[in-house]
Amino acid sequence: MTEHVSIETRGACVDFPIFDAKTRSLKKAFLGKAGGSIGRNNSDVVVVEALRDITLSLKEGDRIGLVGHNGAGKSTLLRLLAGIYEPTRGSARIRGRVAPVFDLGVGMDPEISGYENIIIRGLFLGQTRKQMLAKMDEIAEFTELGEYLNMPLRTYSTGMRVRVAMGVVTSIDPEILLLDEGIGAVDADFMKKARVRLQKLVERSGILVFASHSNEFLAQLCERALWIDHGQIRMEGGIEEVVRAYEGDDAADHVHHVIAELEREQGLPQERSA
GO cellular component terms (predicted)? Predict the structure, then answer.
């Protein structure tokens, strides 16, 4: 693992220019997708301020969950941390090998077989062909797709594609894991199986930043949370504390119960909800 794995952002902003913003509906469309606010840059170009004044300091061992409504900016933040988006203003410095797991379809080809896509998806995530071949049997067993893995990906259902992608991404050893829980297209039994593998993946990672609408899953994988609202960090704190502010007492009480159960299983004092 790279020495001193870390994420440092200082006042980072991400703007998307709207070069033809004559209609209100167009502005609303961009705003809804980006989650920020409408403004103008120094060149007087209309922009969506997708992220504003993001300051983070994460080190090895940190497990951070992101909460917020759809379009709040969680996915944009993950893409900033992955280096896909450069900050328009401010700075972002990432030290360590990043595994972005927030678009399970990226790096996959519908015209080739599932087996070939396992290799390609692994290459996209920084693995070598030799590494992926060594993991092939284990990944294939996890997917439960059998002979379908010999068929072109275009013949797969959405859920089958997710199985292939999940098998690959949960087989790697990342230094920085950026995870967006977009795996809802699989059946409940396979979801349980996938979550067990995700938990093991998190244990192998140096830093985790995880966006999810499942408070229970956040409580299982993360120690702290950020509430992202209209492109800004509205609150940072313990999982229970942030969920209480964002969703209310009932949701927070459920998180408290999940954390307490985990700590009882592990024989730990109840400190994570603070």
Answer: membrane
- Residue 162 placed within a domain: yes
3-state class (DSSP) for residue 240: helix
One pLDDT digit (tens) per residue for the chain, 274 residues: 556 899 999 999 999 887 654 545 555 555 545 555 666 656 666 788 899 999 999 999 999 999 999 889 999 999 999 999 999 999 999 999 888 877 777 778 999 999 999 999 999 888 999 999 999 999 999 999 999 999 999 999 988 998 998 899 889 888 999 988 765 556 778 878 888 888 888 889 999 999 988 898 899 899 999 999 999 999 999 999 999 999 999 999 999 999 998 888 877 655 555 4
**Residue 71 resides in a domain:** no
User: How many whole angstroms separate alpha carbon 72 and alpha carbon 231?
Assistant: 6
> Amino acid identity of 27?
K
**What amino acid is encoded at 259 in this protein?**
I
Beta bridge partners of 178: 100, 209
Q: At what angle do helices 158-169 and 129-143 cross, to 10 degrees?
A: 130
Contacts of 114 (CB under 8 A, 6+ apart): 143, 145, 148, 149, 150, 151, 153, 156, 164
Report CA torsion sign: 42, 19, 34, 85: negative
Structure tokens at 254: 């459920």
Q: Compute the chain's Rg from CA coordinates.
A: 20
Closest residue by Cα to residue 74 from 235, 244, 231: 231
Instruction: Quote the number of domains for the chain.
Output: 1
How far apart are the C-alpha atoms of 186 and 192, rounded to whole Å?
A: 10
Separation between Cα atoms, residue 188 and residue 263, nearest integer Å: 25
In a domain, 124, yes or no: yes
Q: Is residue 218 part of a domain?
A: no
pTM for the full model? 0.80
